[in-house]
Amino acid sequence: MKRSHQPGRIWLGGLAALVAIGWSGAAGAQDGEKLAAQLCSSCHGVHGKSESPMFPRLDAQVPNYLEAQLKGFRNHARGETDAQSFMWGIASQLDDKTITSLADYYAHQTAPAGASGDPALLARGKEIFEHGLPSEGVPACASCHGQHAEGQDTFPRLAGQHEAYLERQITHFRSGARGNAPVMSAVAHTLNDEQAKAVATFLQAQ
Ligand code: HEC
Ligand code: HEC
């Protein structure tokens, strides 16, 4: 797909993909690898290696987190506008077994390679990631997301994720738009834009 940041156009592309493969989802459990190639790859990239910051990378993401998010889209608990526009309809067609199979497939892809970034932002971001901002009550991100931001259990991998996607999510946690994540909302509510950008730049580089 040609890179485009116009959600409307991409969404139409996603719908066209659904029609092209005759996907209604009602057929019961489906094979995650196949569905990922036929459908999810049109936005999230081949093997989850998305090239557009509009779409989060899914490669090597923690399986429990992937399952929780897909269920969160399905039951509308994850409700920011992009989640509604892009993921609610798709997730409504996925049963539990298909979700587990998709999560297992993406979790087993190779981890993304880090990008480069502005040295001053990287240093500032590293500081926040490893030590938090004690004077502002922001805990170290590493304490939940892992020493290398590789994620664990229900804490997502953040390493190698698109900077702009990460920043957008921090904004959603802060405003409450991504309302089903009380722990992250508490972490994000005192992070300002400059701090969010620095830590996101650092994470994309891991
Ligand atoms: C038409 C484009 C499109 C298609 C097709 C699509 N997605 Fe998404 N997906 C998105 C967008 C956009 C987001 C980000 C939503 C946001 O910013 O809140 C997203 C978010 C996600 C997330 C959350 C990731 C995270 O880091 O929190 C998961 C998991 C996901 N999609 C899985 C899938 C799976 C599995 C499929 C195939 C069954 C799929 N998506 C198909 C557009 C798409
Ligand atoms: C106390 C544990 C904890 C700490 C500390 C923490 N997080 Fe999180 N974070 C979470 C959890 C849990 C989630 C998953 C939320 C959900 O289920 O939607 C998450 C999700 C995220 C996401 C969304 C990822 C995605 O793929 O959509 C971002 C971005 C994020 N955290 C950034 C940070 C940053 C930056 C810091 C440090 C300033 C941080 N987190 C500190 C627990 C934590």
UniProtKB/TrEMBL annotation:
Compartments where found: Periplasm
Matches recorded under InterPro entries: Cyt_c-like_dom (IPR009056), Cyt_c-like_dom_sf (IPR036909), Cytochrome_c4-like (IPR024167), Cytochrome_c_Oxidase_Subunit (IPR050597)
Domain (Cytochrome c) ranges: 27-110, 120-206
Keywords for the protein's UniProt record, in alphabetical order: Electron transport, Heme, Iron, Metal-binding, Periplasm, Signal, Transport
Main location: periplasm
Signal peptide, first to last residue: 1-29
PANTHER family: CBB3-TYPE CYTOCHROME C OXIDASE SUBUNIT FIXP, CYTOCHROME C4
Name this protein carries in UniProt: Cytochrome c-552
Organism lineage string: Bacteria, Pseudomonadati, Pseudomonadota, Betaproteobacteria, Burkholderiales
